[in-house]
Amino acid sequence: MNISFKFAQKKLLRGHNPSPIGAVVALSASEGAFGSWWSAKHRSLCHIITLSTTSPFVLKIFIGFFVSIPTQLPTSCVFYMSANIPASIPYLDITYKYCDFYAKFLHLNLPCLFTESHTCTWPARLNWSENGSISIDRVLKPFSGSELCVANCRDIEFGAHPTLTMTSEEYLAYWKTAGCDGTEQLLYLKDWHYFKGKDFRNYYSQPVYFSSDWLNEFYEFRTDCDDDFRFVYIGPGGTWTPLHTDVYCSYSWSANIVGRKRWWVFPPGEENKLIVSHGGQLPSDISQCDFADPETQDSDLPRCYVFDQQPGEMFFVPSGWYHQVLNLTDCISINNNWLNACNVTLVWRHLQAQLREVKKSCSDVESTPGWDDACQECLKAWEGWNYREFFVLLKYILISRWLRLTVQEVRQRLPTVAGIPGGGKVPLHVLDEQVESLLSDIASSEPLLVKWLTGDTLDSRLQNFVDVETTTSVSSIWQHDLVEATRTIRSMVVNEDLKRLRLHSRGPAAWLWKVVLGGQV
């Protein structure tokens, strides 16, 4: 007999901070496979996970409960990355060196603004603007007949704006009549995968400062899903994003194409003062709160940067920094999320913290066979990915940086899969087998890789990167990538949750992970 574990929860907009959420766990005797579905109208995500049991009787339990699964990383994990908080947001012009940004902002996890000179030649700034206003017809034209998910900024539900689905034509009509038809709605088209299936370079140039991007590189490598972390945000004046940290505890950058935004940005740990002053809950809207200056010490008020972002400027948001954003005028922006060697440790710690919350929320049925796998499915539902996906990402980075290969070159080195034609979609679990097989072959033929993975010390080479000329910086960054991917893989293979999942002990590279563990599996 099978027991289906039904985990139903309110799923917030990706990256937004949740308040306590309603969730339901139901155990019922049934047959059936794992499935999932979105309810776009209510933004609820339901997952059914099939578990096995030897119980001789039909078990049916219905449990209703409230849980709070925080998306923020515990502040102790971020503090060491965010030392020496500046008194104001630094402003970097086009002459600022990449190596300086890497060492002084990425590595130290500190925010900064970039001047308009960095984006002035972008095609999007030329084509999406007309006399300083948004050319909404040009922006929406490629999506004629498409359905769009928009947020109504008049309301807040569970810490996020409720959403509705509209066609591009309906949103265009709303835009042209907003404020004139007496509508109560204030609609924000956000988290829009505008560039999916397109070459983003036809719209903007990837800033060199943000070019070390493991996340989008990994999703380009995968063929099981058509996803990316490049977004367009477009909304009339008054639309806003509630207080949140970014998805996966990643970095993000936001470039204003047209319009002006106001930002409220909090150094790590300051959100705790907001929780204390708001009855134990993190508020969604802090625009009317009182704050202390960033350089103030020992204040009961939260320290906060408040500043306006002008057209063409880019803002870098570090990992784990809470922020709220208001469109002061009609705005369109390009936003990217990403991670790399500088924040992968924070991302890994955040993922572990989220799994702990998932397990705590559903501890009532912890003894059910298959519980660890079920928790990974719930983690995937809540966080957007799980341990397997993160482990595959790290193994891909390890291979590509060790061999100095591009995405396409690594893909060409993967072993073929029976029944899947070249260029076909490869499920993640199959891709994992391919990656492990390639890694095993490399390690078997290159003892230096095994020595590298089991070495006592890892030199990050960060100082080397700062000292070298820009022409050789890519090599230095890839060396840093290799170091931090290795460091994080080591942390993963000794993790007790990963051991119970046997993600390191049942693939082609199991022998390698056994060596890394010193013979322990």
From TrEMBL:
GO cellular component: cytoplasm; nucleus
Gene3D superfamilies: Cupin
Biological process annotations from GO: positive regulation of translational termination
Residues in JmjC domain copies: 195-355
Catalytic activity: L-lysyl-[protein] + 2-oxoglutarate + O2 = 4-hydroxy-L-lysyl-[protein] + succinate + CO2
Pfam family, one: JmjC
One Gene Ontology molecular-function label: 2-oxoglutarate-dependent dioxygenase activity
PANTHER family: 2-OXOGLUTARATE AND IRON-DEPENDENT OXYGENASE JMJD4 (PTHR12480:SF6), ARGININE DEMETHYLASE AND LYSYL-HYDROXYLASE JMJD (PTHR12480)
Protein family per UniProt: Belongs to the JMJD6 family.
UniProt protein name: Jumonji domain-containing protein 4
Gene source species: Echinococcus granulosus
